[in-house]
Each structure stands twice: as structure tokens, then as C-alpha cells.
Write a structure and sequence with these properties.
Chain A: Pfam families: BPD_transp_2 (PF02653). Chain A: GO terms for molecular function: transmembrane transporter activity. Chain A: Keywords: Cell membrane, Membrane, Sugar transport, Transmembrane, Transmembrane helix, Transport. The complex is a heterodimer of chains A (341) and B (335). Chain A is built from 14 helices and 4 strands. Chain A has helices spanning 13-51, 58-67, 69-83, 91-107, 112-136, 141-159, 169-176, 189-207, 209-219, 221-226, 231-257, 268-278, 290-310, 316-340; strands spanning 164-165, 178-181, 185-188, 259-260. In chain A, helix 3 crosses helix 12 (268-278), helix 4 runs parallel beside helix 6 and helix 7 (169-176) packs across helix 11 (231-257). In chain A, a hairpin with a 3-residue loop joins strand 2 and strand 3 (185-188). Chain A is mainly α. Chain B is mainly α and 335 residues long. In chain B, a hairpin with a 2-residue loop joins strand 4 (165-166) and strand 5. In chain B, helix 3 (40-63) runs parallel beside helix 8, helix 5 runs antiparallel to helix 11 and helix 7 packs across helix 11. The two termini of chain B are 14 Å apart. In chain B, 50% of the residues are buried. Classes of the chains: A mainly alpha (341), B mainly alpha (335). Chains A and B meet through helix 6, helix 12 and helix 14 of A and helix 6, helix 12, helix 14 and helix 15 of B.
Amino acid sequence: MTTIDATPPAADQKGAALNRRRRVYRPNTKYIPILATLALLVVMYISGLVNYENFDQPSVIVNLFRDNAVLLAVAVGMTFVILTGGIDLSVGAVISLTTTLAATLLQGGWPPLLVLPLVLLLGALLGAGMGAVIHYFKVEPFIATLAGLFLARGLALFINQNSIPIRDKLWIALSDLRIPLGETTKTTLTAIVALAVVLIAAGVLAWTRFGRNVYAIGGSADSALLMGLPVARTRIAVYTISGFCAALGGVLYTINSTSGHALQGTGTELDAIASCVIGGVLLTGGAGYVFGSLLGVMVFGLITTIINFQGDLNAAWTRIVVGILLFGFIVLQRLVTRRAR
Amino acid sequence: MTILKNRLFWPVAILVALLIVNVFTSNQFITLQDGHLFGTLIDILRGSAPLILVALGMTLVISTGGIDLSVGSVMAISGAVACLLIKDLGDQNAVGSVLLIVGVAIVVSAALGLWNGSLVAVVGIQPIIATLILMVAGRGLAQLVTDGQIINVQSSPYATIATGFFLTLPVAFLIAMAAVVLISVLTRRTALGLLLESVGGSPSASRLAGIRAKRIIVMVYVVSGAFAGLAGLIYSANIKSADSIAAGNLIELDAILAVVIGGTALIGGRFSILGTVIGAILIQTLQVTVVGIGVPSKATLLFKAVVVVVLCLSQSATFREKVFGRFKIRTGVPA
């Protein structure tokens, strides 16, 4: 179950036998969910190639990142939280608060270079606050972040209930910016930022002490505490990261659409959680990879793309297909973890 | 001092405070008019019926250590099925047919609950993910049933479910109370409540003690599905149409909140039906009060958020200990 690669000492014969069995299975079981998601992505892409014209254009793949940049950023933050065994329901509301606040401040003539760090800081602070409540007051993550959801969306609606256009020059310039990739394809800044977030997060989780702590707390918070790991700091940090990523998602949204709306981001938390699960992140914590969440988001995006290419399908099918996929992956995870035990 | 220690003291105190505010702010708090009771208090009771039903099912699910996120989607599906069938009736006012359709919608909802329960108990998936599947897919299913449209019906027997009065009280509230009484009797006058709590405390220990834990877990999800379906019928009868997008949107969060306010532990093993009912009515009262005291509509959610934050913190024993503990004069032996 746990992904920490420290070799446990062979205490007695039974333990050693168990460890040997685990060592045989671990490399396989650890990657099975993520490989299954990858295989699914390939199958979906090939079926798209076979069935639709113009599906072979590189822009189809590049646009996956552009269209899902917000979800990608949020899913990365959610991955950190879920890895510790928690959950963050507030991300969608933090997006709406960020977009509304950024658009309102820019409309009021605030300098964009001040607005940008300000809204990102606000998202991080909200996350840190929820993390502190969860850790110090022992409120369930589900309930604490639910209160955070109401608070953030309440603030957003209080600021403005309508869609606010952004006329700021820097924002529009960022929105119009196209980064060439090869000869014919171009992508937006938002896609690059989202991809950068994924890479940084993957590096942090894989190679830093903080990343190890996150996995350790997800494996067992009590053991992590007894081992002397900074549980309080780490737990607050993951919610801070999630809040920051959600705020970043909000900023990416304002850049994509050059507007802000308090109802933007409704339900994003569920899409992010679903992406993580499809990407093989265990909701009990302790196992999973940021790249898995990336693949989960890509599956999400590819379903929408295929439904768009098909043209005559009801948008309701997106939700149904995602539900079926969720079911498939959860059963797969269940089988994998059961065998690993 | 003992009354202050009761888990339900703070929720009840806040509920009473909100009701007192309503006495002063509303034009008519409670009067008799057109042969039935009328006024803000009755509006609150009537409006809280769907939430009470959903939260009641949620209480049972949570008492076994589970959670049901799919209730909102089940509400949407149940309303969609009912309106679709009623629309095809020759005579939409035929009481017998409408009752039959109501039965069908509830059976469909119970079947959806059976799906959730099987995933949790038989396949062994974590409840939060198992019900997430139906939560995501269910709203899509409801949209398929209604073909993405809002189906309007003109059926007075159907509308009675939500807007009718019986013995001067709203029918919707009576339905909810009937469910509450039924569940209270079943859980507190038979061994069922004990079994639920023991399964919530430890499913494997209960199984070793001879309790059929799996069957009980499946059962609570079926009940939760059926109650959510009933709530969906009340919701759709109230607006005389099936709106597969708005029906039951975010109600799972309100329901979980009602359960937590009522003192049921989210980890299972302990539950309070009365607490849940108070929690649900409190949430509905809060919504009515916010409008009543003239909080601008843009600030309603913010107001609710503040109350929710205060409630959540006041329920945390650690928070009370840390914040109020230092003011307490320590006397005698610490408990």
C-alpha cells in the first residue's frame, strides 16, 4: 500500500516472508492504476483517430492542455491533499472568489502586478486557514473545507453576482499570447503554466523531504507523528498548496476568458477528485502520483473532445461516461490493493 | 451545567434565537387562514421537508461509517422519472395513477441506493468514492431521462405532495415527520439502532459478533436512496416540473451539515435522529431568516457561511477546550 521505498528490517521469519512477497508484487501493483489510465488514454485516442477526420492534428492534444488548464492546476493541489488522506471541497469556490476578486480589482484600476500576487496569496491563506482548523481543532476535512466552500463562494457573491469583464492591458496581452510549438501548432500561456505546475509538483513529491512527509502522513498520520515528522506543518502546507493551486486555476480562468464570475468553478472540486481517482490516487491517502492526476484530467478532456467530434451526442453523456470510468478504475484499484495485501 | 453539556444545546439555542428573530421580522409568524396554518413558521416546516428526508437517510448511512454523496442526483432522477410518466398520463389528475407513479419513482430511487450499497458492502469500495460515481453519472442520467428539457406537469394530486395541507399542516412536512417517526421507532424500539451503531463502530467486530454487517450496510443505502427519491418528488411537485440540473443541487452538503450539527459523528458508531431533524430545520430557518431580516441577496451565502463556521467550531471539542478552556475555573477532580 505505502509507496515509501525504505527496506524494512526483517524482524522475524514471518515478516521477512511477507516482505519478500511484497517486494515481488510492489513494482507491479504500484503502477498498475496509472498504466491502466495510460492504456485507456491511448485506446481512446486511437478510437478517435479511427472514427473522426482531423483527429490526427497535433492541436487536438495541445488543446487538451489549453482547455483543461484550470482543472489541471486544481487537480494537482487536490493530489497533495488526497495523498495525506484528506479532501478539499473548497477549490471550486476558491476559483470563483479569485476570478471575481481579480476582475473587480482590475476594473477598479489596481495595478495587475499587485492583483496577481494578492489573489494567489488569498487562496493560499484560505487553504492555510482550513488546514489549521483541520489539524488543530480536529474538524473533519470534509466539514472544514465545506465551510470554506460556503465562505469563499459567499465572499465571491458578496463582491459581485454578475460576470465582470477584464479590460486590463496586461491580462489581455497574456490572454492573446500564443506560444509556437513546432511548425503549425501554437498553445496558450495557460497551458504552459498548468504543465509547469504539474512538473514542479511531481518534483516536490518525488524528491523533497516535504514530499516524503506527505506520503508518510497519508500512510499513517499516527506513525508519522511517532516518527517525529512535522505532521502539523505538512498537513497545513498541503491545504495551503491546494488553496494556492485553486487560486492559480482562477487566475488561469480569468486569463483564458478575460472575465470573472462568482458562479465559475461550481463542481470543479468533484471533477478534480474524479480526475485524481481515475489517475490512480488512492482516496485513503499514501499512494498516487501527480502524473496520474494529469492522465486523469487528460481522460476527462479527451471524453469531452470525442463528444464534440461526434457532434450529435448529448452533453449529459460526458457525465455518464466519466461515471462509468470512475467505476471501472475504482474496481481496478480495489482488485490491485486487495492482491497487494 | 448538564444542559449546557448536551450535544444538542447549541443547535437548539441557535434555532430558537433564529425563530425569535423571525417572530419580529416576519409579517405573520403563524396564523390560521383558509382552514390551515399559515405564516413564516409553516413556510420553514414545509420548506425543510426535502432536507429532513435526505438528512434522515444520510444519518443512517453515516451511523454505519459511510457517506452518501449521490442523494442530489437521486433526487433529480426521481423527479425526472415521475414527471416523465405523469406527462404521458391521459388524465394527469387521476389520483390512482399518480400514486402508482410516485411508487415507481421511489422504487427506482431505492434501486439506485441498492447499487450504492452493493458497491460499498459487496465490492468493498470506500463509501465516498462509491457514491461519487452515482453523483457524477446520476445527473447525466436524469438529463437523459428528460432529454435535457425541463418537463412541466399539470397534475393537482402530484402538486399536493408539496403544496397541500392536511389537518392544517403542510403535507410535505407530514410526510417527512412520518419518515422520522418510522425510522425512530425502527431504530430505537428495535435492536436495529444498536446494530447500526455497532456496524459503524467496527464492521468486522460486528460480523464476528454475529451481525450481518453487509446486509445492514446495503439496507441503509437503500433507505437513503428511497428517502432521497421522496425528497426529489417533493421538490419537483413544488415547482410542478422536473429540472434535472437544479434539483437537489448541493443538497448532499446541506444534508451532511444537518447531520453533523445534530451531533452524529462522521466516523460512524453514533447517531441522533432528533439532532438531524433539528439540524435540517436549523439550516432551512437560517435561509428564511437571512431573507427575512433583509440581508441583501448577494450576502445570503456569506451569512450562511459565517453561521456554519461558528457551528462547526463550536462543535469541535478541541476548539472549545483551547478557546474557552483557559477561562474556566478548575475545581475538583478533572473528569
